[in-house]
Amino acid sequence: MIGVSNRKLLFVLGPVTGLVMFGAVVMIAMFLTNREYTPPYRAPAAVVDPTPRAGGLEAERAAAEAAARATPYVEAEYRAFPVVGSRVAIWAVAQLHLLFAAFVLAVPIFAVLIEAIGYKTGDKRYDRLAYEFTKLLSVSFSLTATFGAFLTFMLIALYPKFTNYLMSVFSPTFLPYVLLFFAEAAFLYTYYYGWGKFHPLVHLGLGLGLNLVGTAIMLIANAWLTFMMSPNGISDSGALISTWEAVYNFTWMPINVHRVIANVAFGGSVAAAYAAFKFLHATTDEERAHYDWMGYIGNFVAIIAFLPLPFAGYWLAREIYAYSQTLGLTMMGGAFSWLFIIQAVLIGNLFLAANYYLWLGMGRVQGVQPLQKFIKYLLIAIALCFMVWATPRSIIATVSELRAMGGSAHPILGFLGVMSAKNTAVNILILTTFMSFLLYRRTGKIAAVAWAKVGHGAQLAIFAGTAIFVIFLGIYGYFVEASVRIGLSVPQVSSVLFAMVAITVIDVFLFRKPKLTGETRWGRMPAISQYVLIFIAVTFTWLMGLMGYVRSGLRQHWHVYGVIRDTSPDAFTPTLGFATIVVSGTVLAFFLLIGFVFWITSLHDRPDYATLSQPTARAAIPAPLEGHTRA
Fold this sequence. Notes:
By secondary structure, this protein is mostly helical. 71% of the residues lie in helices and 1% in strands. It has a two-stranded antiparallel ribbon with strand order 1-2. Strands 3-4 form a two-stranded antiparallel ribbon. The longest helix is centred in the first third of the chain and has 36 residues, at 86-121. The protein is globular and about 135 Å long.
């Protein structure tokens, strides 16, 4: 009975409770709504007259919008790059692109030559060495293309008007350039990934095609940059007359020859630095022997290409003088003259380091080497030539010092600052380095031919006669006019080249079947020798960056010399300190990137991760023989 009553009570109270709760919710909502902010009533804008201020603002906005729509298109001449400025940004990217391009163009040249030697002799070591060089190309080619694309975009963005002018002059060369670039990629990757997959002659043909296409690309690009320094094939106002004449300008062929030689020397030095990197990380005698030999070959290529490089540089400088005496005077006697003192210091260090490496290399051969006693005389000659070459014509001095000297030139040392002394010094330096290499080549060998004494005498006579002739012409240059003095460099260069060729030919026949006094032990080199190779590569790179700045900076405030003036905020010649900072920064960036290339390349020789992660299986212990017990 009580349960029934409770159910009736719940039936009545349920709806009542629901109504009470609903009423409470309504009251809370009304309370909150009454306290909500309500904006005051405003009449519609259409029926209210605007205030003068509002009308003025609206009119100003409409006028600004109309003016913006009526603005005509005007092509920007320059745009600014944040923080460093447009010139430094273009400078750094262009230098990095050129350094990687030089490496990619140079390595295939001696890689194909080494492969051909291996095919001719049947020695598999040469084939392995050529493949080791080629492994460096894959990542380097990608970085070259990346920096090239970056440079193109930056030129279009930061120097649009000048870039448009160059495109109007050289547009016929763009399609061949692009097609050659695709062909280079095809040859490169087929040559690399096809190693051992084709007949050796077919593979050598691929390497030859790679070199020809790469050289053609370089020739086209050189036309663009040399046109800026020595324009040709255009009118006085810059209108195009002949694309071919614009390509074949006054400095195009000298820069082609100079760059081919410099690229080979640079590529050889960087490849030798890679071998030094691998040598220092080698864990076995076999690896050290291989990479010691690889470093020797790379350094040999660098030195052989480096010896004629000053002659090619002289030809380029002479053509610059012939095109414009103003450019020539600016280069050698004006704002850039002190950069050539820095160049002399760098090249002198290169010669010292190259000779030091050769002298260390004599220690590879067993036994006492009698030729090592001549090293001190060669070192004295190299040091003296180095000092003459690095002596400036004008000395930075105080007022009292200038008065004491009677001018900016030292009364005695000033005679060593002119080109007669410097040309003589560099020719003797080249000749001495060549003889140093000749002594290294003879280490551990004795000529066994019957005419050995006559051959040695002939070589010594050629060397001494050439040195005396070069020194005589250098002294004679002080007593003739400037035009005659400049011409004396030609017989100096010719005589040195003749001496190197003649002595080499005699030496080849003299040591065809020599008597060996000791065995060459590859890999038996001190660690310092490998750091010398790295030093040579860094110095080569720094030198290329510095000379690249000199060549481009000669134009000063001209984009195209005498035709298109540079009116940007950067149209001034930077100080030597600032230029060297930028060059040093690009060199540092290049070696950080080339170190990354070395690391990527070294991954090729590492075992797979799965192999490394597997636990080493324990060697099974053989059961004792029947009838025997373990000790």
